[in-house]
Amino acid sequence: MQRRSLGVLLLWLLAVSASIVVLAADPSKEPFTIRISCGSFDDVRTAPTNTLWYRDFGYTGGRFANATRPSFIIPPLKTLRHFPLSDGAENCYYINNVPNGHYQVRLFFALVADPNLDSEPIFDVSVEGTLFSSLLLGWSSEDEKTFAEALVFVQDSSLSICFHSTGHGDPSILSIEVLQIDDSAYKFGPLWGKGTVLRTAKRLTCASGKPAFDEDLNGVHWGGDRFWLGVKTLSSSSDDQPISTENVIAETLLAPNFYPQSIYQSAIVGTDRQPSLSFEMDVTPNRNYSVWLHFAEIENGITAEQERVFDVLINGDTAFKDIDIIRMTGERFTALVLNKTIVVTGTTLTVILQPVKGTHAIISAIEVFEIITAEKKTLTQEVSALRTVKGSLGLPLRLGWNGDPCVPQQHPWSGVECQFDDTKDHWVIDGLGLDNQGLRGVISGDISKLQHLQSINLSGNSIKGNIPLTLGTISGLQVLDLSYNELNGSIPDSLGQLASLQILNLNGNDLSGRVPASLGGRPLHRARFNFTDNAGLCGIPGLHECGPHLSVAAKIGMAFGIERHTYLGAEAEDDVGVAAVGEWVADGQVHAAHHAHLEQPKKALHRSRPSSLN
To answer: What is the pLDDT of residues 421-437, one digit of tens each?
Structure first.
């Protein structure tokens, strides 16, 4: 392209708020690429491009099976991996040692070749904690719905791709592709960046009825090997017609998007009877979409400026006015790309190319992406601590606990409560509710690394071992229920440091030794402690005496505690009537100067959400 023409193009793109992007990738170098043939024990190569698919080893759990491919566009692979609900509702692939950067992540789905299993599972898919795709009923009968694709930034040298069961069949995955693309690829405007994920909603190449990938179109690897669905008409009711050329198209294979020349060598044009072109697709309402339109003037009868001028309307609004391809590119057979970000309030996205001067409208290709705000993830140290707790407690497989505990927000871990911390700009864990889950392990001291916990309920299990001393460092803890387990040893003195503690249930265990004076003897306001059914405990009213080893300080502390409880109890009768204040249960009786039934407070755990993209 001539320098003057390039300047005209840049000015035009600035005028219409199209994206101006810069060279970031070196096309002479190969991008990072990994392709996984799910469920395969061996590396596989597939025709016609001899593509290498790595064996599926060490990435995830689940089961492997033979695959039935529901669509001819799916890679010709023979196995898949599926995830029964008994293995947990959330299951993930973890791919490590991925260079930080921008990636196209594409997943192909297939059906398990077993008539006894649900023929078409329905499930959600997330990448790096952000939900970007939901497989709905009927997906296996439509080519475009047999795969899901997202553009995402990798920031910590690892990538997680998770599959979330909705209770309708086992999620089944045929293949995973992680393909590095230019860091500035599909830069659509000021909202673009590491805080967004782009979901590919539509990608069409016009006038060709044959689907193709970038490799089929002689593209370069930095383009990500995009899938282009070929269409000969934009609408079954339209009167448009296809045209094509073998001429070389200028300004292709350029950074950052590296579009292959082939998509500009064909086009759909209007006719005398219907000079306009119209494209329509279903979308999710109240979302942001990035629309990319591709043009090249390839029709033989159009040789100069002003011979084809048209407007582009998106959902009735003029997105681009007076499009003259030759004027904007400087010559024929030269690629032009226009981009517009829009908010769609309804369920339909419509693009109309309306002639203003000269002949009919023309278009070569269309891409539409849904713009998704990337989820803020849970603090790394808290995720690590939860995984340690998972292992030490012996969580059953059905609970899952894979991926990120708090995101996507539609699929948090079972038994985990989350809250968004604005100061840290991350999710944190503020509650564990794993009562009556058949746990048979021990409580790891790493549980204290969950410093935002307000409630821990591990009651009704078969947990063994000691109560970790480190529990006393969780300063905001209000409820600690370890009742009806098989805990042994003594009660740590450190629990007395929990100034916010309102409920302490240690009943129904095998604990022994003296109840710490910091618990049994301190004045407690509106708190209830239960130490019953521990034959070896001693040292507070209702329990047997600890004998000659009981210290004088402990006895004084207990006496002071009883007096303070009596005082607080009397005071409470004046102030709150029936509410018991400063109670403990030791022998089946509530010990305080005044008492009545006091229910365990129900903490209002809530899930705050970070601001969403509007």
So the answer is: 999 999 999 999 999 99
